[in-house]
User: Fold ABC3 transporter permease C-terminal domain-containing protein from Phytohabitans flavus.
Amino acid sequence: MTSWFIALRIARREARRAKGRSAMVVAMIALPVLALSFAAASYDMFRLRPAEQADREMGAADARLRWDHTGPVVQEPRGNGWSGEGSPVTQPFTEREVLAALPAGSRIIPALENYTEFRTAGGIGSIGVQGLDVRDPLTEGLVTLLEGRAPASAGEVALTPQAADRLGTEIGGTIQNPDRTRSWTVTGLVEFPDSLYETAVFLPETMPARPSPSGGSAGWLWDAPGPVDWDQVKQLNQRGIIVSSRAVFLHPPPESETPEMFRTSGVDAEALGIGGLVAGLAILEIVLLAGPAFAVGARRRRRDLGLIAANGGTPAHLRRIVLADGVVLGTLGAAAGLVIGIAAAFLTRPLLEEHFVNQRAGGYRVFPLALAGIAVLAVGTGLLAALVPAFTAARGDVVAALTGRRGSVRSRKRWLVAGLALTGVGAAVTVLGARRTDINMLLAGLILGELGLVLCTPALVGLIARLGRVLPLAPRIALRDTARNRAASAPAIAAVMAAVAGSVALGVVLTAEQDRNDARYHAGLPSGNALIQYQYRQAQTEPGKPEQAPDLERVAAIARATFPTVATAPLAEVTCPAGTPNDVYCGLSPRVPAGRECPWADEVGTLGAEEQRKARQDPRCVLDSGWQSVGYGMAVAGPDALPGLTAATGDDLATARAALAAGGVVVGDPRFVEDGKVTLEIYDASQQSGTTAVRDLAKLPTVVVPAYAVSTGLPAFGGIILSSGAVEAAKLSHRPSGLVVSTSRMPTSAEQDRLTAGLRELDAALYTSVEHGPSQRSDPMLLVLAAAAGLITLGAAGIATGLAAADGRADLSTLAAVGASPGVRRRLSLSQSGVIAGLGTVLGVTAGLGVSAAVLYAYNQTGADRWPVEPPYPVGVPWQSLAVVAVVPLVAMLGAGLLTRSRLPIEARRAT
Assistant:
């Protein structure tokens, strides 16, 4: 123990002497500690205690109730999930009916939720509305009055700050419904701590868009005569009432009394395994980064350690001296990381609340147990990082250390053999995990392979150094020093490789996920185009007096005034013969010709594995598994509407125009077309009974008309475009339904809001849908990963370059003595940095692409035999990540070249 005290004193003294190196090691250990402590403190602040969660859900009440079922229900203890036996209620229960089901002495107040539209600052938009009397003490904790006062009458409203911004108003201002027939005065600003979103609060009895069976939520806050325990909750469940009880939040029932469907399954073994593997990768990364820094210290103290050994110091003493560096610097790194991480969590709490979590934290607090574990991990990581330099120093040649000679720099063959073997085992485990779709096995194989590459790196550095013979002076010396100092350069290269490989691999997977989602999306219109449709009210009207749609010329004028409109074309919809009431439906749909129908089309979701494999191989069973956000389904249009609806071009467009002009139809799916014609099924509810129409579709009357399937523009899963001649051939009618708007570019949200507002001024039954295409949000995770890999690459390159500069001082003196120019040192430093960062980046990109290919193969294997066919995950390239990663070596080289002093040292020999 005494020798450890001495070693720690030496380490403390050395840390004070080598402040720059010590600060670098402390920063590298503190950085992950900072991140982990920030995450731990933030998690603890946002992890609500049971009492806090109860306040957020039921305010100061004893419970919150919902009565949505007519029969008994079984619920999760907190009321977050339930299953009912009876049918949903069709009419909300009254306050008197609810009180009759509760114990005597109970008091309840309504708590209603829904969504509705208002006039916004830019036009018309939908926000959440709540019916709640904020003046009642039962709402304390559920809602907070920030400014002003609570609504007290039917014409008043309180808004959250987010809603006030969206609606463009403030206290004392007003808000209006879309048609401006009602307005409310804003009396105050409120906040729901559990939901920092756009919300307007009204008195329950005056709330617009009151909850109904088709939407919204109706509940009550219950002031009970006593605590509502689990037995009482189950009794109310028998009446169909769902209860969130404060007493149950604070004292939940034992697992045995919880309904089986709501019992937790315990620890997620897969998630735990993945978390452990990711933590292992993080520790490996820190060790690889900090290890070279300890190697710098051990190499610069080589003579001091040699003197200790010459005066009787054992290898154990030498190991302890170097390991003590890890303990001291690890402790400093842990302390610095914990303090900065907790401070950062406290300072960024408001930002996290409002922009990421969208709810208030429970309070300013930390996670003591987690922080203690993080501190131990930091010190342990410092010891691990110093382990290899410690054993290397203990085995050093004393005479070589005292005389300044370098020892052997050749890589041991057994490390190369072990590395190759480990890489092979890791690859085999990865492939096996991919084939079995076992994510834990797959990640374990990836880590084994990465460790194997780390062990192979010193030999690879030595092999690359042989290329220096054909290079100019500075790169040749840089390659030689990298090989000579491979004890430090190899871990630095491996650290860059690991960081870049992780960034590239995850970037490829995320890019593939986005590409797959894009492939599943089927555009209903050309990108940026819009549909303006009129929603007929379907009211019973007298025959001969049909409902009139608005003037489409005025609609087109509004579109040209508010939208980047290029052209508009009218659309119509199929209706029953003239004189039929509006609420009777008629339509036309293409029939798949006999022999082209999928035998399993009516059994989707019920087929066994063998039948699914057969269906996948049947060309008739190519079913659409995607989705569409905008579509016209079935439209009656003229030839001028085809560019706006299909984006067809050239001869394809000309042929489609001719088909419509000839009284035919245009379809997107060529399976419907046989011999240039399509069979349309006629659904005429004014002439057919519902039984015939629904139960025996094969007996529906049909009409055969000319048809053409477009092959350019939109994919095959669009709608069907009917000519007026085809509708008349079916002896049906049609009426105006709206416009298709062709645009010059993608409209902005402000332009769409203005268009919506303009249309609502004309007629409330007009609505707009714009084809935005699949979501193209750039995933910030890709840039974060790329930035993290870039920082690690710069740090590793800086460490290795600093080590090479420290060890190469004698060489620089020799260069100065033989007449080398000062620029040689700058070019040498630039070359050394380029070797480390460039080699690590190349290896990392190669490894990352291989890793991602294995992961995507595993994902694709899970759906290889399923039907309907799901789009596979394509192996895409995350160009954003690769661009950042590719630039980093250049930045590292530029920084090394600019920050290195060009003056060559000249050391005078001391006289003896």
Summary: Residues 266-271, 690-695 have pLDDT under 50 and may be disordered. Residues 102 and 236 are 8 Å apart (CA to CA). Residues 408-521+777-912 form one domain.
